[in-house]
Design goal:
Strand content: 5-15%
Order of helices and strands: HHHEEHHEE
Radius of gyration: 19 Å
CATH topology: Multidrug-efflux Transporter Regulator, Chain: A, Domain 2
Distance between the termini: 55 Å
CATH class: Mainly Alpha
Helix content: 40-55%
Strand order of the largest sheet: 1-2
Length: about 120
């Protein structure tokens, strides 16, 4: 096989031999979009630790673990600034999203607010 498709396959094989995952693979494993990965890289929330291979970002398994945690924190309502600060600490993977249920009464109706 020759041409651009063959070159792409060879590059992906090279990345896998290096223990790296492409952006597409990392996004699929972490549950986020390619655009989110790009934005998080550009804004230094999480840069791929293996840099780039060719024009592709190269993510390690550790990066993917962090990406999963970022996705969970974002879904829990944590700001990117707080996430960036959390990832700088050694115990970043011990951060947990704690949701509180707060009873609120409005016009005689009880609502449960999740914060």
């Amino acid at each position: 096989m020759t041409g651009p498709k063959a070159a792409r396959i060879r590059k992906i094989d090279t990345m896998h031999q290096a223990g790296a995952y492409t952006s597409l693979e990392a996004a699929g494993l972490a549950g986020c979009t390619l655009r989110q990965l790009q934005w998080w890289d550009e804004n230094e929330v999480l840069k791929p630790s293996l840099g780039t291979i060719g024009h592709d970002r190269a993510y390690s398994l550790r990066d993917i673990e962090k990406l999963r945690h970022i996705v969970d924190m974002r879904r829990g309502g944590v700001s990117l600034l707080q996430i960036r600060l959390a990832l700088k600490h050694r115990g970043w993977n011990k951060v947990r999203i704690v949701r509180r249920r707060i009873p609120v009464v409005m016009n005689g109706v009880l609502f449960i607010a999740v914060c």
